[in-house]
Each structure stands twice: as structure tokens, then as C-alpha cells.
Amino acid sequence: MRLIRTAALTAATVLLAACASGSLPLPHRLPENTAAAPWYQLTQYDAAGAPVRATLLTVAAENGGLRFVQTDPLGAPVSRQRLHLPQGWKNDGFIPPNAAARRVFAAVLPLMSADPAAVYPQLDYQADEHGGRFSQGRQELWRWQNKDNGHRLTFPDGSQWQLSPLQD
To answer: Whole domain around residue 150: which residue ranges?
Structure first.
């Protein structure tokens, strides 16, 4: 019985440590160009580069923070989250938590800023003529490149997302 309790406690500790290590860094400031509530097409790609699904994303300034709303093409919510500083991310509404969407939203923030490095000054940012990458120590968090009239986000797990602004 004691061995089972020890194993369960060890498993719980490992799970909590994994959750904590996967947490996203908080930005130090929000992008300055969010008053117009831009709309984007957000397309997810598989490891082979084939599109998996397309969704819509809007980012709106709200009560000193930002509200991210991701919907399917028919308008059904996929993810709704709010970001307020210094409190952090919070789910908005009755939609289940969506860690993949939150990771994409965090990576979108610097793309909305004239100075991407200023959004996450605690991270290492390297820019080149095609895009840039954010890392923390030796661990890459995401990279982006200008592609197809938008930005392609790539994460260490190989997942890719294309962020394309929609025209009025």
C-alpha cells in the first residue's frame, strides 16, 4: 500500500512539473496596434505541410487587456481567451481550455507589434530578413517567417500555423 501511495505521489509530482514547465511566458507589454480589432485567417498545418483546418481569429482591446476569439468558419467558438497584465491568461466563457490556441495567441502578440522583441524582453529574440525566433535559454519556443501574405508560426513539436490578415 505504501508503495502505491509513493508511486501515485511521484506521478502527480511529475505531472505538475510537466505542466509548470510548459507554461507560457507572460509578455511585459501588450502590442500597441489593437484598437481596430483585426481579423485573421488562422490555418493549422500537419507535419507534412498539408492544411488541417482553417479558423478565424480576432484580437480586440478590452478593459486594458486583449481578448482573443477563435471561431470555425461558421462562427462556432474554438477558443476564447483574455490576456491582462500582470494577471496573465484566462479562459473566456464556457469553452474548455485550449492550450494549443493559447500558445498560438502568445506567438501572435509580437507579430502585432512594431517592435516584436519589446513584447517579450525576457526571451531571446533573433530576427532575420524572413522572420524571427523566440527562445528561452537553449529551448526554442516558436519561430515565424513571412510567408504567403502573412506569417507562418512553427513550434518545436512541428505544428505550424499560418496567420493571414483578412481584408475589409
So the answer is: 2-54+98-165
